[in-house]
């Protein structure tokens, strides 16, 4: 008591206090300048501000495929595994079997819809905060990018628009672990029973009908107009017209309802390989779609440098130089070995994609202009556009 209260003791306490503050400031300075803002204190603060939780959110990549899918998509899956190990995400692989929760009751569940049923069950039974669901033939070309760039905690479901048509991509989405999401995905899987006959586009066509129903319950008339097309869909041209019709309801904003966000063309986390003949650049690209082992081809010396022109939509070149060694995919390792012949400049990629973008916008207008056909009783189908 007397020690603390006498002059000398008080000075000691003040000194100690100043000293402690000094150390804390010094520590924060270290976080800012040395670790580039990646220390625990600053991360907690920024996580709290963004996600509303002090710990960094837990993120998983989830793939649902049939049992022999792992062989057919091994390069894509290895790249995803390597990426998860390097970035500290969990990797979840689920076999798309029928089980008591997905596919043994009244609904048979066709392969594609059943995937979303499995994802819903996985989320319901997990403490992971965000799930990036991807098709099994999606791989990573740019491990420096992070899934966090695309997460917006305001939304339960995040999608992106496919580049080459008017479709929302059903084959990849970010699902936030909420009760709303779990119900949304279960109802989506069950939506299989509501599809029209004809060319309904499986879970991808169905997603458009389903999303419209979820988002616009007060707009039955507008939705019915699009369904006039969907009910008559006999080929992809009809299907894409139906999807363009739904897109007119979604509008051009990314935030539609406060629940669902849809990244516009070219701004999502993934794109198709064939758009640029497999060429990529780290400024624009992150994940690439379309890596089926059986369709991978090699180039010959004579073909170099590779053209960026579209050739065959299924075939693709391996962007890696040498095998992906999973034992070397250690935390923080984002320097993989790439084949320089498959890389190109960002300018070349952008030029190519911009040209396509304009072309696909014209396709959209053509499709919308065909809408009236479906409201008339004609015998001839409209000309293919
Ligand atoms: C949740 O996971 C546990 C452990 O893996 C498993 O035993 C259980 O059946 C799962 N529950 C559901 C609802 O999937
Ligand atoms: C979510 O659903 C579970 C199980 O039905 C329930 O226990 C929990 O309270 C719900 N959470 C919220 C935030 O509503
Ligand atoms: C589409 O077909 C279904 C099933 O035949 C029918 O119930 C629905 O009313 C049709 N919708 C439109 C807009 O024609
Ligand atoms: C491409 O080259 C690799 C390695 O030389 C070889 O294993 C593979 O069979 C080749 N693929 C084709 C389609 O020729
Ligand atoms: C990082 O991982 C890649 C892919 O497996 C590997 O080729 C590379 O050698 C690793 N780099 C280091 C520094 O371990
Ligand atoms: C991407 O484009 C930039 C700008 O043209 C270029 O400097 C870079 O080398 C390219 N390569 C890769 C792998 O991103």
* Strand order within the widest beta sheet: 2-1-3-6-5-7
Distance from first to last alpha carbon: 90 Å
Coarse morphology: globular
Average pLDDT figure: 90
Which class best fits the helix and strand makeup?
A: alpha/beta
Q: Number of DSSP strands?
A: 11
State the helical fraction.
Answer: 25-40%
Which ligands are bound? 2-acetamido-2-deoxy-beta-D-glucopyranose
- Pattern of helices and strands: HHHEHHEHEEEEHHHHEEEEEH
Oligomer: single chain
Structural Rg: 25 Å
Describe what is shown at a glance.
By secondary structure, the protein is α/β, with parallel strands linked by helices.
Q: What's the layout of helices and strands?
A:
Layout: H1 2-5, H2 7-34, H3 40-51, E1 59-65, H4 69-72, H5 74-87, E2 90-95, H6 111-124, E3 130-134, E4 138-140, E5 157-160, E6 172-176, H7 179-190, H8 202-215, H9 220-231, H10 236-250, E7 260-263, E8 270-272, E9 287-289, E10 296-297, E11 316-317, H11 346-369
Parallel strand pairs: 1-2, 1-3, 5-7, 8-9, 10-11
Antiparallel strand pairs: 3-6, 4-9, 5-6
Helix pairs in contact: 6-7, 8-10, 9-10
The structure holds 2-acetamido-2-deoxy-beta-D-glucopyranose (6 copies).
One 2-acetamido-2-deoxy-beta-D-glucopyranose (NAG) binds at residues 281-283, 343, 345-347.
